[in-house]
Amino acid sequence: MLPPPQALIFAQDKIAMRKRLGAFGAPMPKFAEITSTDDLVAAREHLGWPFVLKAARGGYDGRGVWIVDDETELERIVAEQLDRGVPLLAEEKVAWRRELSAMVARSPFGQGASWPVVETVQRDGQCSVVIAPAPNLPADVAVAAEQLALRIAGELGVVGVIAVELFETQAGELIVNELAMRPHNSGHWGMDGARTGQFEQHLRAVLDYPLGDTTPLAPVVVMANVLGAAEAPAMSMDERLHHLFARMPDARVHLYGKGERKDRKIGHVNLLGDQTGSLDDAEYVAAVRERAERAAHWLSHAEWTDGWNEHTGEGQ
Predict the structure, then answer these.
(1) Cα–Cα 20 to 30 A to 231, which of 164, 206, 207, 245?
(2) How do residues 184-214 score in pLDDT, each as one tens digit?
(3) Which of 97, 92, 99 is nearest to 170 (CA)?
């Protein structure tokens, strides 16, 4: 089984992850285990207030995460979750500038490869957009993030791909937030935007083949998640795809075959920026991002965010 169970536990159990990362000095928030409501007083003194409460197992996309500034409500949540047998972890609330992800791959005998560090944009705790590479990231910080991810992969004995989700603080420091030892949403951009995507790289790693070239294929690649609308459109997905491809023939669409429901990840869209652009050009990056988000919104809502009429070809 790869990744091996002795590594996978650190992606499944946040308490185990924090203890192991702390053992070799990885940068991370201060934390405390919560085993009863009595632990909340000590946690508040140690971590500051308010702090972040997390389910140590099973949470994702904002689920199993609580930031509550009312002590009575926090005690109620803790008691309720512990009664359900959910182990809890408290972490200091990091003053971060943005969220980043450093994805790397590691073979059984230690060969490593990294993709460029990306910026992940969250909405309501759920990843909405990924910008690759992360704009305005100093070269030394990008290198430090990749080296940190490779070090974590090596220390934990990871085989395959791992995403190390990071906070970039206001001071430009890196703090480890979460680990995912699998192909990850923050790496989907590479399916069309890198010479070797994460799924192929994962197979290369677990088969102990030489790892592939991770060079991006465009100055910027933007991935936008297709998130289910509050009510599925009357227009079929097939017709939505037809209209999207007619308007944006360069859009790369990946659908997951899932039923549509509110906020469910049902697919993603990758858009590659023009080769003449530059990651340092904020307008260029913003334009690629806007197109990716417009395409994803169309696929989920059957509505063009710029007012375009798909039948007349008119709009704003």
Answers:
(1) 245
(2) 999 999 999 999 999 999 999 999 999 999 9
(3) 97
Which residues are CB-neighbours of 216 under 8 A, at least 6 positions away?
A: 115, 116, 132, 133, 190, 193, 194
Q: 58 pLDDT exceeds 80?
A: no
CA dist list (Å): 166 to 67, 114, 174, 190: 18, 15, 6, 19
Q: Is 23 helix (H, G, I), strand (E, B) or coil?
A: helix
Which residue, among 306, 80, 55, has the nearest Cα to 178 in the 3D structure?
Answer: 55
Q: Looking at 123-132, 247-256, 260-269, 307-316, which range is the least confident one?
A: 307-316
Say how far apart CA 141 and CA 172 lie, in whole Å. 8
Structure tokens at 75: 């005690």
Which H/E stretch holds residue 47?
A: helix 39-47
Contact in structure between 261 and 190 (CB atoms under 8 Å): no
Query: What is the C-alpha separation between 199 and 190, in angstroms, rounded?
Result: 9
26 pLDDT more than 90: yes
